[in-house]
Amino acid sequence: MARVRVTAEPDLDAPTLVEGLPGVGLVGKITTDHLIGTFDMEYVASIECDGVPPVTIYDEDSRDVLPPVRVYADESRDLLALQSDVPISRQATADFSDCFTEWLASRDATPLYLSGLPIEDHDPSTLPDVFGIATTDATASRLQDHGIETPPERGLIGGPTGALINAASESSVDAAGLVVESDPQFPDPAAAKRLIEVTIEPLADVDVPTDDLVDRAEEIREQKQQLAKAMQEAGDEEATQARPMRMFQ
């Protein structure tokens, strides 16, 4: 059974949540790590369920002990971020998504769910395409107002992020699924930068410095490479990713 364990209750007014579960290109993970570090966000909650490995996380130059799946907050920006250092197992996806969706709804939060679309002929010199889908007409209108494109073809979003979007839709929670073309094998800071600039900044109404995502691209890739390998070994069911439906035809 899943539950959200709150360690601090921030003063927020209809916040925006940015989700960063591990997936293709680790675009969500890189994005939320960047937001949390850039804005020095406060750790406020953890998510506990059978599908989250019982491991301990620690940070450089700190003795703090942290759970593997955490929620951070920035009161001044009305911003939440879901950060995970481990994949969520397939068996726990339904409980995890239902529990977290209920918690978000109780706080009138609007989640932005992030996913990478693997591009085999990845060209790092070109800007990756970005598109968005929505669980409600209100969110669809916001995507339209900010010039965020619709999907170029029929597809699906799998893994825990797909389950979270589905749970939001079933509960009539305003939510967006934001997809960016990304490297299918390696951490992709450039795709995360594009996702931030095209979608996160306008939808969350925040200004996010992103130059260091490019300047530190090699360092970020090295830091995230072990997790990226673990996600590839975990397989499609535990990795967040978007896929064209033609792959199944």
From TrEMBL:
InterPro entries in the cross-refs: Proteasome_assmbl_chaperone_2, PSMG2_sf
Region annotated Disordered, chain positions: 224-249
Coiled-coil portions: none
Signal peptide: none
A UniProt-annotated Pfam family: PAC2
CC annotations in GO: proteasome complex
Keywords: Proteasome
Keyword Repressor: no
Protein name: Proteasome assembly chaperone family protein
